[in-house]
Amino acid sequence: MSALNVGITGANGFVGWHMRCFMSTLDDVIEVRTADRNTFADPKKLDAFVDGLDIVFHLAGVNRADEQELLDGNILPAKQLIESMERVDCTPCVILSSSTHAEEPVNAYGNGKAGAANVLFEWAENNGARFINMIIPHVFGEYGRPFYNSGIATFCHQIVRGEQTTVNGNGQLELVHVQDLVEEMFAAFKKGGSGDIRVSGHAIRVAEAEAVLQNLWHTYRVQGQLPDLSDCFQRSLFNSLRGAMQNDDRMSTPKKHSDERGWLIETVKAGSAGQCFVSTTRPGITRGNHFHRRKVERFFVLQGQAEIRLRKLFTDEVITYKLDGNHPSFVDIPTLHTHSISNIGDSELITLFWSNEFFDPEKSDTYFEPVLR
């Protein structure tokens, strides 16, 4: 496939941010442009955004507002996008993030999503262009906004802070992890064709989802164990929980058992298979400067002095942890954070690394990105 120019509307939203993260891992994407509310408010800015694009992920819209806003806030951006594409004579493939609410619209949100799909279908038909309408169930994942994006985001926020959760009813959910979703949206583009695509998810009751999250957190923080991560859905829920953690809580110092023979410390207790390895790092050397989309990874400093740095993708804040082998400590690396470890001491640094999966160079889930820019 030739290099692509990609546009993402609603790029600062939950799915939009994850789409940017995924796009940054692809070799066949040459440019990613983003559009926010300010872009749509200025026709010239919107035209500059659209001009020359091969694909537009239209993720902009409104999902919480009064009824009229829900209707207009989803249809109007689609119409503005069409007007802009016509002004600059550009016919990219447009992929809309719609909702299962639009399949049988019984509320303003569903009607708004259905209306957006209708105007884009008409534009594609009239212009010989491709339009793909992704009908999406409940989306969850790391860094979702609690009390807004999903009930899973709310549960995660409350559980990691020790707050009381509330299960209102016990309806059936169909959950799709946001990184799986953005991957599926791009796969739909590569496959070719147009029309509706219904994204399938994992069926689970609300109360069961809350109970699974509670159990994962209890295993991790109370029992001090990494839970069973062999199931992809459970791993995604666990990563969502870890994403809701506050930065001050990411570093841990297990109890060190010492006697006349020396010392002993527990490094990893895991409920499923993984890979463990140890490395030495010379003074002044830095390892890492990459991120992972799904991998659960632990950096455990056993000897020497280290500085671990994290930076969430597309943000500027760098979080720093200083670890000392005299008090062996570890940091579990959150997904979609580029990270590095540096030897800041005068002697050799010895670090144990653990990952929930065996390293496969063909599927390493490792993407270069400097922490410090």
From TrEMBL:
Keyword annotations from UniProtKB, A to Z: Oxidoreductase
Molecular-function GO terms, alphabetical: oxidoreductase activity
Domain NAD-dependent epimerase/dehydratase: 8-195
Family matches, as Gene3D superfamilies: Jelly Rolls, NAD(P)-binding Rossmann-like Domain
Protein's UniProt keywords contain Phosphoprotein: no
Enzyme Commission number(s) from the entry: 1.1.1.367
Top-level taxon in the UniProt lineage: Bacteria
Domain Capsular polysaccharide assembling protein CapF C-terminal intervals: 257-367
Entry-linked InterPro entries: CapF_C, Epimerase_deHydtase, Lipid_A_modif_metabolic_enz, NAD(P)-bd_dom_sf, RmlC-like_jellyroll, RmlC_Cupin_sf
Protein name (database record): UDP-2-acetamido-2,6-beta-L-arabino-hexul-4-ose reductase
Species of provenance: Mariprofundus ferrinatatus
